[in-house]
Design a protein that fits this description.
Length: 261
C-alpha cells in the first residue's frame, strides 16, 4: 500500500459518491482530459469510464507515477513532473478539460500560474478543481465581504467560477483537518484587457497590503494622486480596498499600464 507523503500535501480522494459527482459535472466523452495530482488513480479510473479522447495526468511523485503506469498501461499518458514547471499552452494542440485534487500547500500557486499564463488564449475548456474550503471561499468571495481580496480579483478576471459542493475530511485518506470545496472555472468571453497580468498582481498587492486602511495611500503610491483616473473610475478614496468591485481593479491595472506606456 502506498503511503501518502505529507511533504507533497497528498490526501487521496476515496469517496465513491464524490468521485461520481466530479466526473458527471461536465461531458468529457471524446475530449482531451488532463488530471493534475492523480495520486493512486481513483479519479483516473472514473475518467476513463467516460471514454475521453485522450487522458494525460501530471504526477510529481515518482512512486505514484510508476504505480499509475503499471495500473493503467497505455490508457494514460503520464507526465512525471512538477505542474509548476510545465507550460500547458505548448503541451496541448486542442483545448482540454482539467480535473485536479490540488495539493493544499501549492493550490493557489498552481491556479495563479494558469491564470497569469493565459494571455489571450485559453488552453482549457474548463477547470474542475478541489481546494481547501477556506481558500475556495476566498476565490469566490464578493466585494464588501471579509474573504474578498487579491485571490478573488485575480481568479475572477478571466474566469467565471461556481462552487459545486463542500467535501468532508472523511472523503479523503488521510483525513485532512479541514473541509474541502469543489469549484468549476469556465473562460469568460469578455474581460478587461490588461497587457501584462503582473500589473494586476502589483495593483492588488499594493491596495490590499493594508486592507483596513483607506484607499488614499495606495492610490497615491501607484498614481501619484492622478485626478483623471479618480474621475474616470469614480473612486472614493475614503473607501477601503474590499469596498471596490472587481472590475474597478481591472480598470485600475489597465490605467496603470497606460500611464507607464
Amino acid at each position: 500500500m502506498i503511503k501518502p507523503k505529507k511533504s507533497l500535501g497528498q490526501n487521496f480522494l476515496i469517496d465513491f459518491d464524490i468521485l461520481e459527482k466530479i466526473i458527471n459535472i461536465t461531458n468529457i466523452k471524446n475530449q482531451i482530459v488532463l488530471e493534475v495530482g492523480p495520486g493512486t488513480g481513483n479519479l483516473t479510473s472514473y475518467i476513463l469510464k467516460k471514454n475521453p479522447k485522450k487522458l494525460y495526468v501530471i504526477e510529481k511523485d515518482n512512486e505514484l507515477a510508476n504505480n499509475l503506469s503499471n495500473k493503467f498501461k497505455d490508457q494514460v499518458t503520464i507526465i512525471n513532473d512538477d505542474v509548476l514547471k510545465i507550460d500547458e499552452t505548448t503541451l496541448f494542440k486542442e483545448k482540454v478539460t482539467v480535473f485536479g485534487n490540488l495539493p493544499y500547500n501549492i493550490s493557489t500557486e498552481i491556479l495563479s500560474k494558469w491564470i497569469i499564463n493565459l494571455k489571450n488564449y485559453f488552453w482549457f475548456d474548463c477547470l474542475v478543481l478541489m481546494f481547501q474550503k477556506e481558500v475556495a471561499d476566498r476565490i469566490i468571495a464578493e466585494f464588501n465581504t471579509s474573504n474578498y481580496g487579491r485571490l478573488s480579483i485575480i481568479c475572477n478576471w478571466k474566469l467565471n467560477i461556481k462552487k459545486i459542493c463542500d467535501i468532508k475530511p472523511c472523503s479523503f485518506f488521510p483525513k485532512p483537518k479541514v473541509e474541502s470545496s469543489l469549484l468549476i472555472f469556465h473562460p469568460k468571453k469578455n474581460f478587461v484587457k490588461i497587457k501584462n497580468p503582473t500589473n494586476l498582481e502589483k495593483v492588488t498587492r499594493i491596495f490590499f497590503n493594508q486592507r483596513r486602511k483607506m484607499l488614499k495611500k495606495p492610490f497615491n503610491q501607484l498614481f501619484n494622486g492622478n485626478q483623471n483616473v479618480l474621475n474616470k473610475l469614480k473612486i472614493d478614496l475614503n473607501l477601503r480596498p474590499q469596498n471596490l468591485k472587481m472590475n474597478t481593479y481591472y480598470y485600475l491595472a489597465s490605467e496603470y499600464e497606460n500611464l507607464r506606456s
